[in-house]
Design a protein that fits this description.
The protein has 14 helices and no strands. With about 240 residues, it is mostly helical.
Amino acid sequence: MLNSNLLKLLLICNIFLFISASAGYQANPRIRFSTPTEVIASSEFLAQEKYGIVNRKAIAYMDRYIRVNEESLMMIRKKHQSTFRMMNRVFKKYKLPQQLKYLAIVESEMKPTALSKVGARGTWQLMPETARILGLEVTEESDERTSTALSTKAAALYLRDLHHEFNDWLLALAAYNCGPGPVYAAIKKSGSRDFWKLQDFLPAESRGHVKKYIAVHYHFEGKAGVTTQTAEELLASR
């Protein structure tokens, strides 16, 4: 019998798949949100000890992330409803999953002035050259990365391009963090285009980035919205 943590991850994956196939997706049926469900949700896969260990690590990582950041996530949920609605409109315009807005939480905790040590700035943590390519003005006098509306449009275009390049959303999310080069290197080294099989060949920050996104997605759109209920209770409520 599956333990409660594994059931919880399966629930996360199933909700992730269900929500990602929502109205925001139907406009372009060729785009499919690649999810852990295809890898995890089969008895044959779960029976493989090697990948079972990987899955338990993923469960622990996402569980811990939600627990540590739960108060902050609840505050963001309360404070940024109007910003989320704006982001929904942008992603809908570009026929992308509206749930991609949760990536902004992982990137910057929705802070327009956030600045990383490597120079990524704004809600979507865009690097200067990437931002310029995407049409944003980045000069000493003006930096449009700090405009949440303008940078959301730029991030949508970038995510759309990354998905077209990899045809897989989890790889696109990893590439958003580290760039396409390291993702292609991980594909070559692993011999797979499956995130869950190539993740150990990615930079640690990038594989964590994807798992944080899945955790935040679940926190905001999972039926419970918090981690205090057991997986069995959550499954029973579906």
